Amino acid sequence: MSRFAIQRHYAAMQPLVKLGQEIRERGHLDSKLVELILMRCSQINGCAYCLDMHSKDARAAGETEQRLYLLSAWRETALYSESEQAALAFAEELTELPSHESVSDALYERVRQHFEGGRRGRPDPAGRHHQRMEPPQHRRPHGRGPLQAGLALTARPRAM
């Protein structure tokens, strides 16, 4: 299968662009954190175009150069808050998961404590649908893309 070149098919990417805007408009996550999540997932997926785009967006949102440089080693530095670390761990695990699995209960609980304000329930797994929409270079063979991780963090929980 040939690669889908985002820069040559911008119009086809508009649904994903709208999805990214919705994540930001929900206001559950700081713009800098959204860009860190998208950048980290793009690092894992090896998408140079996305890394370029999200690094520029992160800088525009006020992210520092040092934090961008150390993002791939976020576990090894004290530059990221506990909530940022939880979000990055969640995004990484979601990006690497086979599509039939979900994040561990322990990690989900860690993220829930930082981002759901104590509400019960699991985030809506909307990412499973959006994984199919993403271009091939945004996914590893069984992985998920960066927008999916952001969606999972910002989705309203379903009743259990």
What is the annotated CATH architecture? Up-down Bundle
**Share of residues in helices:** 40-55%
Secondary structure tally: strands:
2
Shape: globular
Secondary-structure element sequence?
Answer: HHHHHHEHHE
Strand order of the largest sheet: 1-2
Query: How would you characterize the largest beta sheet?
Result: 2 strands, antiparallel
Radius of gyration: 15 Å
Low-confidence stretches: 118-144, 154-160
**Assembly context of the chains:** single chain
Which structural class best describes the helix and strand composition?
A: mainly alpha
Beta-strand percent range: under 5%
What's the helix count? 8
CATH topology: AhpD-like
CATH class: Mainly Alpha
Report the mean per-residue pLDDT as an integer. Answer: 73
